[in-house]
Write a structure and sequence with these properties.
- It contains 13 helices and 13 strands.
- By secondary structure, it is of the alpha/beta class.
- It has a single domain, classed as Rossmann fold.
- The strands form four sheets. Strands 3-2-1-4-5-6-11 form a seven-stranded parallel β-sheet, sandwiched between helices. Strands 7-10 form a two-stranded parallel sheet. Strands 8-13 form a two-stranded parallel sheet.
- The radius of gyration is 19 Å and the shape is globular.
- Bound molecules: nicotinamide-adenine-dinucleotide.
- The site of nicotinamide-adenine-dinucleotide (NAD) has 24 residues, from helix 2 and strand 7.
- Nicotinamide-adenine-dinucleotide binds next to helix 2 and strand 7.
């Protein structure tokens, strides 16, 4: 089914709309004809996708904190959304070492607060809780992690996402069991890339910052393997899942992995080399950081379940994802209307792909 058939005319609440993924999702849903409500902290900086695309002009954005249960209750009551995409989170591993309490408070209690508020918001039929590929206990497996693998997490960010999964599962099994109750699913996606991400210490924004200023890219973990995919592929997974939840509720109210195809998983060095090739020039150098917190060597996702049961699969190869990413950043030289139009054009072209 076409996504527009589900979302046109629906009221959709996105928590974390001022973030990278949330702002792309807001554009996508607006283009599908949904009425989008956003709830998040203000944008982190002036270059954020939410700001440069002036997303606030086409949606209703509410400044708020997911640690504030009353604020969530108010936004749900005032706007009566049909479906919620919960993306608000402290999303950076390094920041989680600096602020573990804030990370757990936002990433775990944010989920509990939202789902508790949804219990009493009778308009909501479905919730997609976005966690992470890092929610799994990383056992150094060479195979992709499956939804049934143990949850865990060594650093506070990963652990908070594992805990968010457990919290969502508990809330679902305790309070969302009747046929009329909202259907609650969780989505575990890999490392997403795309224009408009300016987060600190993420490899693709680091590449663009270096390439644009003619500096060598500094790479700290060249052999770490991660499931990179374009933000549109991950969001397409969330949107397809939302469609299923709205149509057939509880059958799909569980955990889902969304990641790249198995052959498209590369080490950081491979990603950086492809970024340089797509940019057209540039160099990188490896600089080991002895004091850096430990990071898992390999992490990727088994996406068989979403492929088989949701009929979702990634559309872009890594090379296509990188090309779209570089084009997305290059488009940022234009004014807000043109950047927004470029994002919408990329989404439209993506939707045309088989
Ligand atoms: N970007 C990735 O590669 C990636 C990978 C896996 C999972 N995720 C998850 O996807 C989601 C979105 O990630 P992103 O890359 O867009 O992150 P981001 O940092 O760009 O955006 C985070 C959003 O959450 C909001 N937020 C943070 N703390 C909040 C709070 N206390 N109350 C209300 N809003 C708050 C921010 O304002 C922002 O809108 C997060 O849950 C993240 O953990 C991201």
């Amino acid at each position: 089914m076409e996504l527009g058939d589900t979302y046109r005319g629906k009221t959709v609440l996105i928590t974390g709309d001022t973030g990278f993924k949330g702002s792309w999702l807001a554009i996508w849903l607006t283009e599908l004809g949904a009425k989008v409500i956003g709830f998040a902290l203000p944008p982190a900086g002036p270059r954020d996708n939410f700001v440069i695309c002036e997303v606030a002009r086409s949606i209703t954005h509410v400044d708020g904190d997911v640690r504030d249960y009353d604020a969530l209750t108010t936004v749900l009551g005032e706007h009566q959304p049909d479906i919620v995409f919960h993306l608000a989170a402290q999303a950076l591993v390094l920041d989680s070492y600096k602020d573990p309490r804030g990370t757990f408070a936002t990433n775990v209690m944010g989920v509990v607060n939202l789902l508790e508020a949804v219990r009493y918001a009778r308009s909501v039929r479905a919730v997609v809780v976005v966690t992470s590929d890092k929610c799994y206990e990383n056992q150094g497996l060479d195979r992709g992690y499956r939804e049934s693998d143990p949850l865990g997490g060594r650093d506070p960010y990963s652990a908070s996402k594992g805990a968010a999964e457990i919290a969502a599962s508990s809330m679902r099994r305790s309070f969302f069991t009747e046929p009329g109750d909202a259907a609650i699913a969780t989505a575990r996606a890999g490392n997403v890339i795309g224009g408009g991400d300016w987060a600190a210490n993420r490899i693709v924004p680091d590449c663009i910052r270096a390439l644009a200023s003619l500096e060598p890219i500094v790479v700290r973990n060249p052999s770490a393997i991660r499931p990179w995919q374009h933000v549109m592929d991950a969001l397409n997974g969330y949107l397809v899942l939302g469609t299923k939840l709205l149509a057939d509720g509880h059958r799909y109210a569980e955990a889902w992995n969304f990641g790249p195809a198995p052959g498209e998983v590369v080490p950081v060095s491979g990603l950086v080399e492809q970024m340089i090739a797509a940019w057209g020039s540039g160099t990188y150098r490896v600089e080991a950081d002895a004091g850096a917190p430990a990071e898992a060597r390999i992490l990727h996702l088994d996406i068989a379940k979403a492929r088989e049961q949701l009929a979702w699969s990634p559309k872009l190869s890594l090379a296509q994802a990188i090309a779209a990413t570089v084009q997305g950043y290059r488009a940022e030289r234009d004014d807000a209307a043109a950047i927004y139009a470029h994002r919408a054009m990329q989404i439209s072209a993506f939707r045309e792909l088989p």
